[in-house]
Amino acid sequence: MIRFDKENQIIAIDTKNTTYAMQILRDKYVLHRYFGKKTKDVPLYEERLLQFSPYDAEISRSFSLDAVASELSFFGSGDLRDTGIKIKNRYGNSVTKFIYKSFRTFKGRIPFGDMPYSRNGDETLEITYFDDVSNCRLKSYYTVYYDTDTIVRYVVFENAGKDTLLIENALACQLDFENADFEFVCLAGQYYHERNITAYPLHFGKQSIYSERGHSSANANPFAILKSPAADENSGECYAAEFVYSGDFELQAELMYDKRMRFMAGLNRHTISWNLRGGDSFTTPETILTFSAEGLNGVSRNLHDHLRANVINPKFVYAPRPVVINTWEAVHFNINEDVLLKYADAAAEIGIDMLVVDDGWFGKRNDDTSSLGDWYLNTEKFKNGLESFSEKIHNKGLKLGIWIEPEMINPKSELYSKHPDWALQCPNREKSLWRHQLVLDMSNDEAVTYVANSIIETLKDVKLEYIKWDFNRSLSEVGSLAFDEERQCEIKHRFVLGTYKMHKMLTEAFPDVIFEGCSGGGGRFDAGILFYCPQIWTSDDTDPIERLKIQQGTMTAYPLSAISAHVSNTLINDYEDRPDYDLRFKVALGGVLGYELDITSLSPEEKKEAEKQIRLYKKLSGLILHGDAFRLSGLSDNEYGFYVLSKDGTEYYFEYYNLSDAPVQRLFEIKLRDEKVIIDTSKAVKYSGNKTLYYMFSCSIA
Length: 702
Ligand code: DGJ
Fold this sequence. Notes:
Layout: E1 2-5, E2 10-14, E3 18-25, E4 29-37, E5 85-88, E6 99-107, E7 123-131, E8 136-145, E9 150-159, E10 165-170, E11 173-177, E12 183-188, E13 196-201, E14 205-211, E15 220-227, E16 238-243, E17 249-255, E18 261-267, E19 274-276, E20 281-283, E21 287-292, H1 295-311, H2 314-317, E22 324-326, H3 328-331, H4 337-350, E23 354-357, H5 385-395, E24 399-404, E25 408-409, H6 414-418, E26 438-439, H7 445-459, E27 466-469, H8 491-509, E28 514-517, H9 527-532, E29 535-537, H10 544-557, E30 563-568, H11 581-588, E31 592-596, H12 604-626, E32 628-631, E33 639-645, E34 652-658, E35 667-671, E36 676-680, E37 685-688, E38 692-699
Parallel strand pairs: 22-23, 22-31, 23-24, 24-27, 27-28, 28-29, 29-30, 30-31
Antiparallel strand pairs: 1-2, 2-3, 3-4, 5-10, 6-7, 7-8, 8-9, 9-20, 9-21, 10-19, 11-18, 12-13, 12-15, 14-17, 15-16, 16-21, 17-18, 25-26, 32-33, 33-34, 34-38, 35-36, 37-38
């Protein structure tokens, strides 16, 4: 899997279909030589006279860091492009130059203790570099996942001296290309419009996607594809990178005048730096890299398989997910035991598996102005306690889920009145509110432990099968009273580490509970959260037309089993003048199903319809959890669609939507193991509300 050609000093990493290769030059530099289709022949670096470039006196003008493709790039020492690694030394300058020292390979990988990571791993390459001036060692890791064509990269800085260093840039994943011609494909959006696919040809200069919001965000996702212009959904060369992190990130491509291109991914350089004391080490989050010659679906499939096999908790990843009825869209904060027991009766009648009590069950929370931080039961709403409520729900044959938002604190809360120092804040600065709330200082271990334990205490004796973990605002005025001035630049990363610590505490306290991630809709849909939460609420926008775009984008990077999708009756688009439950259900089949509406008000016909839907969903759930999803190729902006094929090629389901006035005939071929199925979209059903729309659903399961 990892081979070394001693004569040419080439280290090559092979996966099932790809090769990634580097060359150690003159025992000093590690050059990037190849990433693409599997090959035995890696092109060697050819030394040649380079005009007008900085050069290494030992090597002379046949080599310049500024002119070569490198595995990592270091600030201020001859590579004059934007560089990924920068540390400030005791002399006060940030010139960085890590020189190659050695490499080794070993089976498996080194797991992270405090951050999400890809489990398993076939083999790992560790390259060690050293910077004499700063007295710092850098270890760069590449773990191979042979079957999924994925390579996971991260670096570790080790301060071997006594002086404190400042890590200013830690973009641990870099891909240098010569003669690049790519489109930069990313998932951009905002609240209610998360993860829309956005693609532009790379142009001279930099193009990036980043977050400085303290969470991965609805606006940008830590994911990008470099797509050859000729590639489509099913063919052509694509590279993809997914950063396994839930805070500030950046993924950037810079195209040079001469068509060289540098892609880098990692922690956001503007908002995160880290003091590395003598003897300490710092590990960056990892990036999952993949290449496919089978187009956008090829890289998506590799990532889906990787996330399912290695990132999402193996205990839950393929376990059937409960069909939930969530209270939020129907009643908001107006919940109480009596109302919910009626919901539970109606839900049980149609085959729903679980009642999820959303926001409003704790403290004195009757609206969004108070109580975040006060994680004890509101006994006015649940007079007999949660244990007894849960028992009643279970007696009706349902499971129970509950909502929390642990990383937030309302100024109007008992917690804040005792601990105003536990909110993120900067001295002498006003704190911005958002939905009346402040953000808990997750870098403060005392605050994290206290809140986690108070949630555990309240829920530990309650029979519970699901927890929805929300996060309803971005960060501002980021500072912590728990750290001195020097450490304030670390708070954004410490915040994320605190978030992960709390996820670890709660998931360990409730090992049989499925956690669903959420962030004011889908504002924290990333591989870091997926490590703890096998599914994530995709968007507060439950409108079927708008969801098409959101889900089509989300499935580019994340498997369908991660995409939480509910049928609601909220009307947002101008296509429907009444909720069309068939359309809404079909759209929700692009993920794991739930309902979010006043279920007691459904007519007998609607109840029957919902019952039928749930039966069908359960038949399809094997495909949703295990199958390969393919987005349909060649669609116009008005069309959406995908199909899911079982790994053994025996089963499929297919969805197609066309938002135009007339049906379009397109023929899609699904390659089953023993036959080919051709689907003709001119057979799509016409739905006529205010506007016309055609859609079709087809599946192999009776
Ligand atoms: C935002 C979430 O996206 C909603 O589903 C709901 O849980 C509310 N927060 C509750 O405050």
